[in-house]
Amino acid sequence: MYLTIKETADYLSLPEELVKSLVLQKKIRSLYDGEEYLIYKNQFQSHLEQVEKYKMLYDEYLKEPIPEDIDVKDED
Fold first, then answer.
1. pTM recorded for the entire structure
2. pLDDT tens across 32-71, in order?
3. Residues 65, 30: contact at Cβ < 8 Å?
4. How far is CA 48 from the centre of its chain?
5. By its UniProt entry, which InterPro entries does this protein fall under (predicted)?
6. CA of 25: how far to CAs of 5, 28, 30, 74, in Å?
7. Counting CB atoms within 10 angstroms of each CB, which of 4, 17, 31, 69 has the fewest?
């Protein structure tokens, strides 16, 4: 499925100007049909899955208790 720049911006929750800039810099693959740029939607799927995975790993890291420091000496 192909999306226009506006639809891609909505899908990625990014400003339309940023998406257009990335397309023109060839950082997002696209096709030009003579009128507008068309962007293949599934090219973002692996990136979005990876972002979700890292969010989950980060949340797990934050939930992990802080281990006691072995080198702590009682000053009393």
1. 0.64
2. 999 999 999 888 888 788 889 999 999 999 998 887 777 7
3. no
4. 5
5. SinI_DNA-bd
6. 14, 8, 11, 60
7. 69
CA distance 54 to 68: 26
Q: How far is CA 62 from CA 16, 31, 53, 74, in A?
A: 34, 42, 14, 28
Residue 71 amino acid letter:
D
Residue 60 Cα distances to 12, 56, 68, angstroms: 25, 6, 19
DSSP calls for 3-71: E-HHHHHHHHT--HHHHHHHHHTTSS--EE-SSSEEEEGGGGHHHHHHHHHHHHHHHHHHHSPPPPPTT
